[in-house]
Design brief:
By secondary structure, the protein is of the alpha/beta class. Helix content is 38%, strand content 19%. It is globular, with a radius of gyration of 14 Å.
Length: 151
Amino acid sequence: MPSIAPFRILVVDESDAFLASVVEWIASRRDLRLVGTARGGYEVLNAVERLSPDLVILDAVLSGIDGFRLTRSIKKRAEAPLVVLLTFHASAAAREEALVAGADGFLAKQDFTDGFEALLAGWAEAGVGRTSRPTIPERPVRRGSRTEPDR
């Protein structure tokens, strides 16, 4: 049986603590592979071009250029990667703005692991790849600890 290649992920966040926790979580997973990190908004576009990730996990609030504008720019590319926007303030208005910008997922940072698990499960069920369009779940299903990755 052929193995499925892991999602190649670029993580973008200005918070050292949050970036480190996401990088550590990705490292614990066989179905995900970190290809790079970026801290600032303008750094992202170069990293997407250079690294060709399958998925960009992107903070919605960055200095210089916000994640919503970056999502629009990323999604204009041929074979654009999936984009998941993250924020501490996951309001209905921000969720709508993420959809309009072209995001493939939108999560509150405090719900990251459970929410990301729900996105991955939904994408797998729908057979989502670079060319298909996933939906953004309303609420993640709580699976386990918020501090320890599910195994």
